[in-house]
């Protein structure tokens, strides 16, 4: 087995373990990112406030409170909605990524060694090369696994969307009661029915059929452009990670004492620092990537012909795709909207990356040890 295949399998295993541990945080974070709150004071062109009752979301709460709310309303299963396809996606994504990453890493190290033999460089791969290696591996990974993540995101947010529909139906019934100036037995029965109604079961095949019905086969690659842009996240992450490991190994070599191998704790901390830097620098892109058509429609201007408001004209002209999302985010939420839910994402992604790096490196070490012993036997 080549070291690329070994790293791919180890990456898949580490990714599965990290995903299971941190999945509840990922579910809550996805909901935080996709539930938009309009910037205070923003108004439609007809003068109505975008933060009116029909558009306003519930006040933001802390991550722990949101987890408890999901448990209360949906049970423990709500925190793990979409876990099965997510584990499949994680295994495939990490396996493919680490395989290609190791393939191109081997090539980069071979080039660096060849340049050293020619008197150029010290034989180690530079930061820019790590950036390129990670970017190429990430791009290939995205093309192969984007359909899986489209389904995972849809399944994670399905219950949230169902609840919004029920809330709208409840508001409609209350408005009807207000117009009648009373609540009769029929309305009471309808309200009681809504209160007892629970979100419908929503599986992977159901999600896949909906995606195909709505957008055809290309729907499975929805958001591919911002996802490819998000390749800069693992690129930055691995650039920092490999640089930290290079520094640690160089320091060990200079001291000439003890083992020169990096410990599991050092890998864990290096992975945490690397992911923290990558997440903070690329989080706005992740928010834009997760915006869906329902979210964008919530920002649609009711009367885009208001004289003198150039924002309205710009939104109307550019009302498609990623650029549309960015324009509407700035218009209705301001810059803070791009960082909504970042604290949860930092906790989830940093811890997940740390666990993944640590488990993956330990699995690679175990494989290397077993392979070395096997070679001795034969």
Automatic annotation (TrEMBL):
Q: What is its main location?
A: membrane
Ranges for region Disordered: 32-55
Composition-biased stretches, type Polar residues, lie in: 44-54
CC per GO annotation: membrane
Q: List residue spans for each Solcar repeat.
A: 2-107, 125-247, 262-366
Record field: transmembrane:
128-152
User: What Pfam families does its record include?
Assistant: Mito_carr
Which Gene Ontology biological process is one annotated for this entry?
nucleotide transport
Where does the protein end up?
Membrane
Entry's Gene3D superfamilies?
Answer: Mitochondrial carrier domain
Spell out the InterPro entries in the cross-references.
MCP_dom_sf, MCP_transmembrane, SLC25A32-like
Q: Fetch the PROSITE patterns from UniProt.
A: SOLCAR
Q: Which family does it belong to?
A: Belongs to the mitochondrial carrier (TC 2.A.29) family.
Name of the protein = Peroxisomal membrane protein
Organism lineage reads as: Eukaryota, Viridiplantae, Streptophyta, Embryophyta, Tracheophyta
């Amino acid at each position: 087995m080549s070291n690329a295949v070994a790293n791919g399998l180890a990456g898949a295993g580490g990714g599965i373990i990290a995903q299971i541990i941190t999945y509840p945080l990922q579910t809550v974070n996805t909901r935080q990112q996709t539930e938009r709150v309009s910037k205070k004071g923003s108004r439609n062109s007809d003068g109505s406030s975008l933060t009116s009752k029909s558009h306003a979301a519930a006040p933001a709460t802390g991550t722990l409170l949101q987890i408890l709310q999901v448990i209360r309303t949906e049970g423990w299963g709500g925190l793990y909605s979409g876990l099965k396809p997510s584990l499949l996606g994680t295994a495939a994504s990490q396996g493919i990524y680490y395989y290609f990453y190791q393939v191109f890493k081997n090539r980069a190290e071979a080039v660096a060694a060849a340049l050293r033999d020619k008197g150029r460089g010290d034989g180690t791969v530079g930061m820019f090369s790590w950036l390129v290696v990670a970017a190429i591996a990430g791009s290939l990974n995205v093309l192969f696994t984007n359909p899986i993540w489209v389904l995972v995101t849809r399944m994670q947010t399905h219950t949230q969307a169902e609840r919004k529909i029920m809330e709208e139906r409840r508001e409609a019934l209350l408005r009807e009661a207000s117009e009648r100036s009373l609540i009769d037995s029929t309305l009471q029965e309808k309200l009681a029915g809504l209160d007892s109604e629970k979100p419908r079961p929503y599986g992977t095949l159901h999600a896949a059929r909906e995606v195909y019905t709505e957008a055809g086969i290309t729907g499975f690659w929805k958001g591919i452009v911002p996802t490819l842009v998000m390749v800069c996240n693992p690129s930055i992450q691995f650039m920092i990670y490999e640089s930290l490991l290079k520094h640690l190994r160089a320091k060990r070599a200079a001291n000439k004492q003890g083992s020169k191998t990096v410990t599991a704790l050092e890998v864990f901390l290096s992975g945490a620092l690397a992911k923290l830097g990558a997440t903070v620098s690329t989080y706005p892109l992740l928010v834009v990537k997760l915006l869906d058509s329902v979210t964008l429609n919530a920002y649609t201007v009711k009367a885009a012909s208001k004289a003198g408001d150039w924002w309205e004209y710009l939104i109307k002209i550019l009302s498609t795709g990623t650029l549309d999302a960015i324009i509407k985010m700035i218009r209705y939420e301001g810059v803070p909207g791009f960082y909504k839910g970042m604290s949860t994402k930092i906790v989830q992604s940093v811890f997940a990356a740390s666990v993944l790096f640590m488990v993956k490196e330990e699995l690679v070490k175990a494989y290397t040890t077993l392979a070395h012993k096997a070679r001795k036997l034969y």
